[in-house]
Amino acid sequence: MTTIPKSISKLTNLTELNLSDNKLKTIPESITKLTNLTCLDLSGNQLTNIPEFITKITNLTWLYLSSNQLKTIPKSITKLTNLAELDLSGNQLTTIPESITTLTNLIQLDVSRNPLETPPIEVAEKGIESIREYFQ
């Protein structure tokens, strides 16, 4: 798939959506109508950014964005307060925003296979607790 049909927004009771291993370059804003979504897998695509509107899917607890072409993480990702697992591995991230440490329910953060500078990769690969300690 190269695009997500806008009609997907009609699946309002959907709780899990796996769109991994496609050729997606963008995510339509209509995806925010999936208010019951708890798991979103967009790994293995060609995404270059995480759109700000994704933070409107407030029930998300699992977000998989590995193996894309992401260069930054928006600070607004902290609005996803229910997030327990976030996979950002295999992207082009050089920085993890300090604000990510405020996601109190986040227990699993994978940032491996990124050219990280802040925090250093050896800190980041140890997980969210190491990242929280680094920024304290």
What can you see in these coordinates?
With 136 residues, the chain is mostly loops. It has a domain at 1-82: Leucine-rich repeat, LRR (right-handed beta-alpha superhelix) (Alpha-Beta Horseshoe). Helices cover 9% and strands 11% of the residues. The chain contains two helices and five strands. It has helices spanning 121-124, 128-135, and strands spanning 16-18, 39-41, 62-64, 85-87, 108-110. The chain has a five-stranded parallel sheet with strand order 1-2-3-4-5, with no helix packed on it. The protein is globular and about 45 Å long. The mean pLDDT is 95.
Please tell me what the overall shape is.
globular
* Main sheet strand line-up: 1-2-3-4-5
> What's the CATH architecture of one domain?
Alpha-Beta Horseshoe
**Helix-strand sequence:** EEEEEHH
Strand content: 5-15%
- Chain-averaged pLDDT: 95
Determine and state the CATH class of one domain.
Alpha Beta
Tally of DSSP helical segments? 2
Largest sheet: 5 strands, parallel
Radius of gyration: 14 Å
**Unreliable spans:** none
